[in-house]
Amino acid sequence: MLVPLYEAVYERLDVGAGTRLLGLGCGSGLALLIAAARGAAVCGVDTDERRLDLARERLTAADTPDAPARPARLVLGGPESPCVREAATDAAFTVVTAFEPLSALGAGSPGATVSDAASALAAAAAGTERGGAVVLAGWGPPERCATSGVLRVGARLADPVCAPDHRREVPPAAGWRLCGRDDLEELAARASLRPDGSGRVACPFGYADMDSAVRGLLSTGLFDAAERATDPIQVRKEITEALHPHQRADGTVWMPNVFRYLICRA
Q1: Which of 60, 121, 138, 172 might form a disulfide with 191, Cβ 3.0–4.6 angstroms?
Q2: Domain count, the chain
Q3: CA atoms 91, 61, 213, 48: torsion sign
Q4: Other CB atoms closer than 10 Å to residue 87's CB: what's the count?
Q5: Which domain of life is it from (predicted)?
């Protein structure tokens, strides 16, 4: 469902045969697969070994006699992994992407902060060639994202102090938080990156039925903390209730969303 975002960024940066791309928090590899299909040499890093295995399967399946896949390297770990530095030593990256920057950079981990994310981003950006592009992306304004209400369910169940009416000094876990107007710019500034353009992309979330919607949202990992704090049955029940306003007469679930991206230069 984020394909429009990936395509918009790749088109703007002219990602192709001369591109050496590092995907931070690459997950199951869809963004890498799209970049590889455009001719880019890709490297992906993620802390979830199961999703990396799926990414490996996807990229291997793309290799056919008629259209050989470009070389790909997948690394288990974070942006500061020695393997990432080693890959950058072989050939500096021309593009670094963090399509879910705060979670991809570890700020969604217990005890982590946005400053930690900025440090990780700066370390990854150090592996780009001079003038290389670093792309950050995230949710748009809550009023433009129908899924925001569903994500707040996960935050509330995981940590009651994340409720909108609760005041706290430390920002809530970034894995679920929608991006404020200047969040991406703040993260870039902390990582000493220079903004060089931005954009917004419509990324609607559509599902065939309610069960598909619940399973799809759970698969993102954004509700893992909620399941640990309560129980899976309770989480599914409250997600279903939050989705009811978005279910149409034919049973499908449709949630318009807007994502925002920021292009920076190292």
Answers
A1: 121
A2: 1
A3: negative
A4: 20
A5: Bacteria
Both tokens of residue 35?
């970049």
What averages of pLDDT result for each successive group of 10 residues across the chain (266 residues)?
96 96 92 95 91 91 62 82 68 89 62 77 88 92 91 84 43 46 88 94 97 94 88 95 97 96 93
List the domain range (segments joined by +) for residue 51.
3-145+171-205+256-265
Q: Return d(Cα 62, Cα 5) in angstroms, integer.
A: 21
Joined tokens for residue 152: 């707040």
The model's pTM is 0.85
Domain assignment of residue 245, yes or no: no
Beta strands 93-98 and 128-139: pairing type? parallel
CATH of the domain at 261: 3.40.50.150
Backbone φ, ψ for residue 174 (5° rounding): -80, -15
